[in-house]
Amino acid sequence: MIGLMVWGLASGQYFEPTPMNPDPIDVATEASGKSPGALSSPANRATEARVYDPSALVPANQTRVAVLGYHNFSDSKPVTEMLMRTAEFREQMETIRKLQLRVISMQEFLAWRQGKLQLPARCVLITMDDGWRSVYTDAFPILKEYGYPFTLFLYTKYLSGRGDSMTPAMIREMQEHGATIGSHSTSHYYPSRWKHAEAQGKDFFAAFMDVEMGDSQKKLSELFGAINTYCYPGGFVTPAIVERLPSYGYLAAFTVIPGKVQVDEDMLRIHRYMVFGTDPSIFRRAVDFEQKHSTETTSAKRNRNPLPPFPVYPAPGSTVTENLEQISARLGAVEKLDFKSVQMRVSGFGRVPAQFDPTTQTVQWNLPMRVYMPALTVQLSWKTTDGKQMTTQWSFDITPADLTENP
Predict the structure, then answer these.
(1) Residue ranges making up the domain that contains 147
(2) Where are the alpha helices (DSSP H) in 126-184?
(3) Strand, helix or coil at 230?
(4) Residues 135-162: tens digit of each pLDDT
(5) Does pLDDT of 39 surpass 50?
(6) In sequence order, which ranges of 177-215 are alpha helices (DSSP H)?
(7) CB neighbour list of residue 287: distance below 8 Å, 6 or more residues apart
(8) At what angle do helices 168-175 and 216-224 cross, to 10 degrees?
(9) Taking residues 226-255, what's their average pLDDT?
């Protein structure tokens, strides 16, 4: 077990392995204008004393944790939601250091939640989904350099070492340097497959969960040691899934719903910021612990600009579920429209392959995946036949599907 001295959740014992968290930045050194060379040295990052300053610890209810979720990395392949530039990942890890945020291990997170460990007020928990080889080749050297612990949420059918997957040997090496292992199911089925299984009846769905959640926990435990955390594939979660998780030995489960984690949060619906390669603002929100809460919705803030002069779906300021299937606009009222020039951009996705039907004068984009963000902003642009460039945009909020489908 890796991390600071924590209470062994399964055995009831204390462990004192080498802790992985670097000390906070020497504020006095940086303020003086002197070069913080020792702090910037990879060798020093890996060897400097890593103990909590007792004066920095706060009561459990004053700690907030930003859980970060990553997938794949590359400095050459095209950036997508799930693939981030390796250089950008390094910049984010450096930002965490400069902000003096404490990066905690999964063991510390669980011990804090069970009242067995005090933490600083602002903490970060780093997680990596699926088991991409680039986590080992690109992210792991950076995490090791900074001394940051992290959690790998693995699905067992992606442990072959073939293609872009990691081998068990790679994962064990990372365990020796701060990695904790959690389950991401057996097959990583998308929400549609889970919904289909649940529709087949209670007994069928129970057997399905036994394979996806139970068998995964058993195999990963055999390979890497006891597994007690789970990450919902595609963020799909229902009351039936939550009810069954503890029977497989899971103590905590992570969603894709962003938000800071507090000590009283549901342990089987833990908030997590999915850090997309196409949207750096997600990381900025995650590490911003000073943001004030507001009763105004995200979309309401973004809809202060003039709204589209034609019907759009979803409507500006509306709230839809994360299972949203399409975004569309009816442009029949637009004068002198050059329909070949119509383009749609969506926050977090960039320019999307929206299709324009000249018969109905409708532009529509069918979403290829579940929406993980709390709100989306859509920008629509087009040209008129006399050469004028036109643009409009609108925003709407996203709510978890299980909050509306499973009251």
Answers:
(1) 6-286
(2) 133-134, 140-146, 168-175
(3) strand
(4) 999 999 999 999 999 999 999 998 888 8
(5) no
(6) 191-199, 202-209
(7) 66, 95, 96, 99, 101, 124
(8) 60
(9) 93
Q: Report the candidate in 333, 353, 347, 345 with the shortest Cα–Cα distance to residue 397.
A: 347
Burial class (CB in 10 A: 0-12, 13-18, 19+), 377: middle
Average pLDDT, integer, range 59-85: 94
Positions of E strands within 201-260: 229-231, 252-254
Is 47 inside any structural domain? yes
Cβ(247)–Cβ(255) under 8 Å? no
User: DSSP assignment of 87-120, as one string?
Assistant: HHHHHHHHHHHHTTPEE--HHHHHHHHTTS--EE
φ, ψ at 327 (rounded to 5°): -125, 135
| Predicted TM-score (pTM) of this structure | 0.66
Rounded to whole angstroms, the Cα distance separating 397 from 318 reads 6
Backbone angles phi, psi at 291, to 5 degrees: -60, 130
Please check whether residue 254 is in contact with residue 232, taking contact to mean a CB–CB distance below 8 angstroms: yes
What CA–CA distance (Å, rounded) separates 276 from 107?
25
CATH of residue 374: 2.60.40.1220
Residue 187 phi, psi (nearest 5): -115, -10
Q: What is the pLDDT of residue 159?
A: 87
Q: How many angstroms separate the Cα of 58 from the Cα of each of 194, 255, 280? A: 41, 26, 30
**Judgement on whether residues 215 and 343 belong to the same structural domain of the protein:** no
Phi-psi region of 115 (alpha: psi -120 to 50; beta: other; left: phi over 0): left
pLDDT tens per residue across span 273-307: 999 998 888 999 999 988 654 444 555 555 555 67
Residue, of 100 and 3, whose pLDDT is higher: 100
Half-sphere exposure of 115 (CA within 13 A, CB side): 1
Residue 204 lies in a domain: yes
d(CA 126, CA 268): 17
- The span from the CA of 72 to the CA of 128, in Å, is 8
Answer yes or no: is pLDDT of 372 > 70.
Answer: no
- Radius of gyration over every alpha carbon of the chain, rounded to an integer in angstroms: 23
Per-residue pLDDT at 81 exceeds 80 = yes
100 and 165 in a common domain? yes
